[in-house]
Amino acid sequence: MRKIIDVLTFSAPIPVDGRHRAEELRRRQATEKKGNQVYLNTLSVSFVNSYLRYMGFETDLEKSNSWNVIQQTLMDVADLSIKNLGLLECRSVLEDAQFVYVPPEVQSNRIGYVAVQISKSFREAKLLGFFKHVQTDFLPINQLRPLDEFLEYLEEISQFKLDETCDDSLTLNQNLVKLKQWLENIFEAGWQEVETLLGTQSANLASSMRSKAGAFLGRGKLIDFGKLVTAQTVVLVVNLPPDNEQEMDIIVEVHPTNGEHYLPPNLHLMVLDFEGVCVMEAQTRSSNKNIQFEFSCEVGERFSVKLTLGEINITENFVIC
Questions:
Q1: 288-321 tens-digit pLDDT
Q2: CA distance 8 to 266
Q3: What pTM does this model have?
Q4: Do 288 and 147 form a contact (C-beta atoms < 8 A)?
Q5: Domain-by-domain residue ranges, the chain?
Q6: C-alpha–C-alpha distance, residues 138 and 130, integer Å
Q7: Is 259 exposed, middle or buried (0-12, 13-18, 19+ CB in 10 A)?
Q8: How far apart are alpha carbons 125 and 90 in whole angstroms?
Q9: What secondary structure does DSSP assign to 5-54, as a single string?
Q10: What's the CA dihedral at 70, 72, 77, 79 to 10 degrees?
């Protein structure tokens, strides 16, 4: 449970490691003006980072552009990455300032903007308030929203992201093909016997190309890319060993439909891991009769098979359970 404290501002020392980082980045700049800009940006980010971590939010300085030497040199940036929420811009102001300057390059792709007043000693700072959005370079300090609203705002974003993730997860779970259930002759809709989709002769040829590790249980699904100029359907075949081991060898194949000799050219096949990162891929030319991938998955592991033809993408999601 995060701490929601009813305060208008927040004052505290700037963390020592943040001051050291600010000095380090300042020394790397070519001019004194740029060095001072980077120095203040880094102090602001370090201060906000310490505050939000105390309030229970997970941050990641290493993913923040402001913590990157090159980005700080090229841009006027003071962003802080908040896990699962996005980038928060931490703009510094000096004592007695009337406006917060927000450079044009950071006026988008931000979940909000906080004003950080840096003391004359550069050892302490004060959070003055925040803006949700900006549309101009100079924002009046007297129009800042208070910190208690800022924390509530972050909680709202956090809840929205959580609900969005749950909705995506629910949709994914509903569409998951559970491969171990195939061993019990339980198959999802659309997955048919390979012979039905390829014809007996083609199915036997496909079977001969599989791993020699033993017999495999296979099912195929017709993938329809719609009304394209070239062949518009292919058959996706997934094979797995008929045992119940902790790790399973998976064979994924793509074949032309019964009656076609070749796959459509420029068909792109990818195997994605559970994070959606491509781990295997291939693309057909003008005379490919099939594509085949072999890999292993542990029980409980998820993966996806993505097929792309032209501008059409079709993805099938699988889990070993």
A1: 999 999 999 888 888 999 999 887 889 999 998 8
A2: 59
A3: 0.52
A4: no
A5: 10-169, 176-319
A6: 13
A7: exposed
A8: 12
A9: ---S-EEEEPPHHHHHHHHHHHHTSSSHHHHHHHHHHHHHHHHHHHHHHH
A10: 80
